[in-house]
Write a structure and sequence with these properties.
The model has no long low-confidence stretch (mean pLDDT about 95). The protein has a 6-stranded mixed sheet with strand order 1-10-9-6-7-8, with no helix packed on it. A hairpin with a 2-residue loop joins strand 2 and strand 3. The radius of gyration is 16 Å and the shape is globular. It contains no helices and 10 strands. It has one domain. By secondary structure, it is an all-beta fold. Helices cover about 0% and strands about 55% of the residues. The two termini are about 30 Å apart.
């Protein structure tokens, strides 16, 4: 099995509840940043605290790519997901043959392989539609 390497350290973790995206919040004004920022881009305050973002959000917009990219073979989906913390995440979407995307649908974060590089599996966060049963 190939070694799994996160696309960016400190951006996510996984526990028994699933994928958890790690952001930070300014201790002065409360602005939240994902991915994390070294200082507040709103008020320039330097004290930031790590927070966990909600695992579920709402699909704001998406597109299906039909041209190859450096890491993704077509067709592939990418989109924006609005989280309850008022953060909009840009992420790959999990595509399945039996599920289409609809703006406004509930999505959940998952950790998954993004691509393979040499002898490594690059892993990161994706979002997929919430099953009606979950």
């Amino acid at each position: 099995m190939a070694e799994q390497v996160p696309i960016r350290e400190g951006t996510f973790k996984e526990d028994k509840t699933g994928a958890i995206l790690l952001a930070n919040r300014c201790k002065a004004c409360g602005q939240i940043f994902f991915p994390k920022s070294k200082f507040c881009l709103s008020c320039v305050h330097k004290e930031m605290e790590e927070i966990e973002l909600s695992q579920r959000g709402i699909l704001y917009s998406y597109t299906i790519g039909h041209m190859p990219s450096s890491h993704f073979k077509p067709p592939y989906a990418i989109g924006y997901i609005d989280l309850p913390e008022k953060v909009r995440i840009y992420a790959p979407l999990v595509m399945t043959a039996d599920q289409s995307f609809q703006v406004g649908m509930e999505m959940v974060a998952v950790i998954d392989k993004l691509w393979e590089e040499d002898d490594k599996e690059i892993i990161g966060y994706k979002f997929k539609p919430v099953d009606n049963a979950s």
